[in-house]
């Protein structure tokens, strides 16, 4: 059985929120409908988003690290949100494993949001319907688009290629290889939901204050090659980002 999913590399996510804004733009104009925003420029903004980036700091000064953690629906293989839905609006699509919502059947009871241990569901306050990430189901199967564009909007928008998309049940897919070779892990596997989305663990780097023996500032002769070609070869940039920088 095919199971499409995201694999997110926490090493290269810079918290730019390009995934958040591209997701909002595509889904507002797509099958999901108009996603509500209330008081967007006031002190207490509120709105419907399928994808969010949480940013927090770890460690103790001066040895601290900032981590950006994107989170959306994990498209669980055993989704607890589906069996609790009283109208059958929440369902798991057999052909690709995506967990979706039939808006015509949703009554906004919020049972699915209470059942989801990841807080991945959001009620649209204007439509009174439950919404969530669809992995751009109306995009990835759209034959009117060039094949290279048949990916979730967040994947195409990421300037550092931190987001990978593919079939995790295909051992030869890019996502499966990344999980296998780089220790990809599921979020809160103890809940038994078998999340499809995976994260590539963040690797700690030695960091001290400038001037120390292990200072990250290096002489010009020892500086790492940061040319566009070198970064592309290491997989640190996608083509869209390279074109922008060029």
UniProtKB/TrEMBL annotation:
Domain spans labelled 4Fe-4S ferredoxin-type: 4-34, 64-95, 97-126
Keywords, comma-separated and alphabetical: 4Fe-4S, Iron, Iron-sulfur, Metal-binding
UniProt-listed PROSITE patterns: 4FE4S_FER_1, 4FE4S_FER_2
Keyword Metal-binding: yes
MF annotations from Gene Ontology: 4 iron, 4 sulfur cluster binding; metal ion binding
Keyword 4Fe-4S: yes
Name used for this protein in its record: 4Fe-4S dicluster domain-containing protein
Gene3D superfamilies: 3.30.70.20
Superkingdom of the organism of origin: Bacteria
InterPro entries: 4Fe4S_Fe-S-bd, 4Fe4S_Fe_S_CS, ET_IronSulfur_Cluster-Binding
């Amino acid at each position: 059985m095919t199971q499409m999913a995201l694999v997110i590399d926490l090493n290269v996510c810079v918290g730019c929120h390009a995934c958040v804004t591209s997701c909002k733009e595509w889904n507002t104009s797509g099958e999901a409908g108009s996603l509500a925003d209330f008081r967007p420029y006031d002190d207490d903004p509120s709105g419907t988003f399928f994808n969010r980036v949480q940013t927090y700091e770890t460690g103790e000064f001066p040895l601290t690290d900032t981590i950006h953690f994107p989170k959306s629906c994990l498209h669980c293989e055993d989704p607890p949100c589906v069996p609790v839905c009283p109208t059958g609006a929440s369902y798991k699509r057999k052909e690709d494993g995506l967990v979706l919502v039939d808006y015509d059947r949703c009554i906004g009871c919020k049972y699915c949001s209470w059942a989801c241990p990841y807080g991945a569901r959001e009620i649209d306050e204007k439509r009174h319907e439950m919404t969530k990430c669809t992995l751009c189901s109306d995009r990835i199967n759209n034959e009117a688009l060039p094949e290279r564009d048949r990916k979730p909007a967040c994947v195409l928008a990421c300037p550092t290629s931190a987001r990978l998309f593919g079939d995790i049940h295909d051992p030869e897919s890019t996502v499966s290889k990344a999980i296998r070779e780089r220790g990809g892990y599921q979020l809160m596997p103890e809940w038994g939901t078998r999340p499809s989305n995976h994260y590539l663990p963040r690797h700690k780097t030695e960091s001290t204050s400038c001037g120390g023996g292990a200072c990250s500032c290096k002489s010009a002769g020892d500086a790492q090659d940061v040319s566009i070609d070198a970064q592309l070869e290491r997989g640190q940039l996608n083509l869209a980002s390279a074109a922008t920088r060029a």
